[in-house]
Hints:
Blueprint: H1 12-24, H2 28-58, E1 69-70, E2 73-74, H3 82-102, H4 117-140, H5 152-168, H6 170-176, H7 179-203
Antiparallel strand pairs: 1-2
Amino acid sequence: MSRIIKPRAKDHGNSRRRGRGSHDRPTDDAKGWNMSVIATAIWMILPVYVANASAVLVGGGPPIDGGRLWNGKPILGRHKTWRGLLGGGAIGCCCGVVQAWVAPAWLPSFGGLPFALLPLLCLSFGAMFGDALGSLIKRRMGKSEGDPVRGLDQLDFLLGAWFLVGVCCPRWFLGNFTLPVMVFLLILTPGLHVLSNIIGHKLGVKHVPW
């Protein structure tokens, strides 16, 4: 009499666990996409960061507003100077020129020289104008120089750079500052700004650590 061999029941639990685990792990394409966004964001925004930091180091001298008042309050304040605006913008632009010259093939390009000068000037000096506009808004709010305004202090220079390059070089801006890149920079910039200001305060080039 022959034995009847029953088929083994399928291990649905293990299958489900294996299937679920395989879907939970990010693919290599997703990891590569994330690294591409991060590399693009940091590379393209570097002239803006350099311009903003350099303005503190090279600043001083006559203020942009000439010490004039608006409704009894300073227009910008004595810490916003022509030397800081022009020096910071120029140093940021020079940083971008070096980037355009040495950029490896796997990083986005500012374009060939001299055509890259327009977006670089817009990024660097847009950061300076954004910072000055932030000071104008703070003075109108009744804030003294050095008083913090969360969000405005950390992002005014970034938004100023985006605005000016977006107006003057819209196709270049939209081609390089995609939505994921912009979201990443909006998250990264406040933390870096606070950290750089703390370091500047320790070195004696910033009056307040924010």
